[in-house]
Structure formats: structure tokens, C-alpha cells
Amino acid sequence: MHARRVSAPRRRSKSLALAAALGLLASSGLVHARPWIEPGDMRARHSLQWLVDQGCLNIPLSTWPVMWADISPALDNPDAAAFCRDSLAWRYLRFERDFHASERLQASLTAGAASREPLFRDFAGGPREEGEIAARLEWVGGGLAVGLAGSYSHDPRDGDRARYDGSYLAGTLGNWVLGAGAIDRWWGPGWHSSTVMSTNARPVPGVWINRKSARPSGWRPASWLGPWNIIAFAGRMEGERVVPNPYLLGARATFRPWRHLEIGLSRTAQWGGEGRPQSWSSLWDSIRGKDNLTAEQGEGPGNQLGGGDIRLGFPLGSAAIGLYVQATGEDEAGSMPSKFMTMSGVDLATRWWGGEQRVYLEYADTTAGSWSERRPNVAYEHSTYQTGYRFNGRNIASTWEGDSLVTTLGAMHFFRNGSDLGLTISQAHLNRDGTMRGRAAGGSVPVLELPDAQKVMIYAASYRRPLLGGRITLAGYYTDKEIDTVLRSWSRGTLMASWEYRFD
């Protein structure tokens, strides 16, 4: 498994106070020591997707983290088809579940290193800095789940050497989970990219609420939705921005009205911050999307993104195929999102040579209006929130930033002995308009973007295997030319390694 990132911005007093209040919400239901599967484990994601496409599970999978409460009962079902129970996917998820499912104190240690700060990130994650060491304690009891994480990063670009990313406090109230902390999120069906939220940036600390189980609604008018989930969160962004300390608000709903179809609807907004309206009426205007105002009406209350995604998945014997598309609007027209950035792809899962494989082809166009009239210098930018849709200098959504066109071919092989191998090739035309967009306030973290248009081929590989009672991941990528950023030129090669040890 990849190294855990455990850091947090400097201003967290409000989030920690809210976290403490969640202790009042405990119920008697069992919560796993980590109630969810985090983004970052590509084998867990492949395993879940194969089981869903084969009909062994029927749960939404495009919103990460994914709750164990949706998975664990199915893994214990003695009537499950032998075809499901005999798969490597089923066995791997049971192994992970059995580690996290007991009511006991759990500890893990991770260490990661890279030849430089990695410029690009996908779902698999990996080290964020040149050097990281992290420890994590997790405990469950009485309906509460607590994760305390701390790490030290060597010479990070954002200056935060001591970090607390990955820390959380979560409690259950009926079929709802209320939580506070700083955890990674990935929204959308893409394997390599997302147009609305990914793990490219460090997690924004905040509070959230989501359904514990995606079981279908018992209310007849909503029963057609099938299994469904919803999450809403509110976080506080860093102070070193053009508009310091804005709030990041987000909500996402997913549902499966047909066993082969998953639909997701997402919305995020930057709102408030120093010098900006923070009244209840301003918040209500932002929630209802009243942002595109005329000069006579005044300035809009926030910076919003909104859109949706769909995935169709079907079994092909022991194989499975999926088709997916995601569209996120940078603007609003007629109370609906417009000027879409898009991502689409196809994936195929197979079971050959005693293991399991997944191949995907993914296409991302992060120019606003990619389906209609192209609007350069709009995606992930805003006239008021001029640091843009970024946290500590990195895009919260696409690792490719705005105005980019990228095609990625990826292949993964999952061995029976627990090892896995991944390869990707990306043909990228980055910052096609050739204009620098995001602004950083004086003394803040530089925005990690390209100053001009650049075409580049990116070849990446990763290998994970058990080692010394833990798991080691070796990874890296190579580009056919140096990449110039506003900070410096990135040399062609980047090597990474991480090792995780779990204390039983």
C-alpha cells in the first residue's frame, strides 16, 4: 500500500473543536477501526469494481473513501456465488477487512522518498515530498472511530514539515456518519484523473456527513434510485492566498438505478474568506448557485464547480468492461452547470495467467467549454478567488491543471502472491493556451503550474510487493523532455519508494 499522507494546514483550531464535539454523537453500532477504504490502494479499487461489474456487489463506487459498512456484509455472505468467493478480488478485500474490522488499537508506520517532489499524481497516490515518515494510530469503540496521524516531511514546498493529514474523528448516528479531520477524497469514475476532486492536493481539513450504508431507500418514491449515497463537507483553506482562509464546501450524491449503471452528481464551492461576505444570506446565495451576477446586482458570493458522471459496467464471462464519462461545469447558465471540463474512458478487467488484470484508456480535456465554445484561462480560476481551485499550490481536481488535453493508456497486473504491477503512458498537451493563470499572495505557496504550452509524453511504472512484514512500493515516471513550471524545470525522471508496516 502507498505511504499514508498525514499532514494538515496551520490554522485548525475550529476544525479540532468541531471534531471534539462529535464525541456526543456515538451510537452502539460497530464501526471499523478505519470505517472506510481510502483512495490510494489501486488493488482494492480494482477488486471492488470487478465485483460490482460481475454482480457480486451492488454499491456506488465513484465516491472515495468507500464505507466498509457497504462491503463487509457481502464478504460474510455464505450464499454468495462461488465465482465471487473464489476470486482474488474477494480474498484481497477480506484480508483488508479482517485487519481493520476488529475493535482494537491499530498502529502503522510508513516511510516514503522521491528523487524530487512528484509533479503528477493519479489514484494510486504515493509520496508527496522528497522525504516523508509517518505514524498512525486508529481505534474503534462505542460507535466512535479515531485516527491520529502525524508525519514529518523533508523540505516541503508549502513549508509544513509537521503534518496531520489522515487524522479524523468519526461517529455514527443511525445510518449516518459524522466526521471531522483531513482525509483524502476522490470523486468520479476515472482511474487516472478527476475533473472535480482528486488526491492531487493535500486534503482540506473540515467536517462532513455521509450515509454509512448505501442501502436502497424504503421510501417508495425514492426506491427507483437503488443503492445510494450522499456526502456533504465544509473545510477551511489556507491563509496564504489572495483571499485568505476561504471555506471549501462540497456535496456529492451517487446512486445505482440499474445494476449496470452508476450516476454521480457533484458540486463544490469556495465561499467566504477574509474580506468576503460570510453572512447566512451570502451562504444561501452560494448554495442556490446565485453566483453569476450582473454589475448592477453586485459581486457573486463564491466560486463554484458542478456537474455529473456516469459509468456503465457489464460482465463478459469472467471479464468485465466499463464505459464512463465525467463533466464538470466551471460556470452556470439557467441554474445549470455550463462550460464543461470533461473526462471519459473505457476499462477492461480480465483473469489470466493466474492473476487479475485491468486495462484502461482515459481522455481528459480540462478546457472550460470543451463540449461547446472553448474558454481558455477559465477552468479552475476565478476573478475574485485568484489563487484558484487549489490548496497549498496544487489543483484540488485535475493533476493536469486547466487548459490541458491528455490521453492515458494504463495497465495493471495483480499477482496471486499479493504483488501488483502498473504501467501507464500519457500523451499530454499541457496549458494549451500558454498563459499563467493562478495567483499566489505574497509569501504564500507558489501555484504549481506551467508558464506556457508544452507537449510531453509521460511513461510511468509502479511495483508493490510484501517485504519485511510490510509492503513496499517502487514507482517512477519518465518524460521525453524537461517540463518547465513557474518554480523550475522538472528533469525527465522521478523515482519514488514507500514502505508501510502494520503492527498486529
From TrEMBL:
Span of the signal peptide: 1-33
Keyword Iron-sulfur: no
Top-level division of the source organism's lineage: Bacteria
Keywords assigned: Signal
Coiled coil location: none
Any Pfam family the entry gives: Caps_assemb_Wzi
Name under which the protein is recorded: Capsule assembly Wzi family protein
Organism from which the protein derives: Alcanivorax quisquiliarum
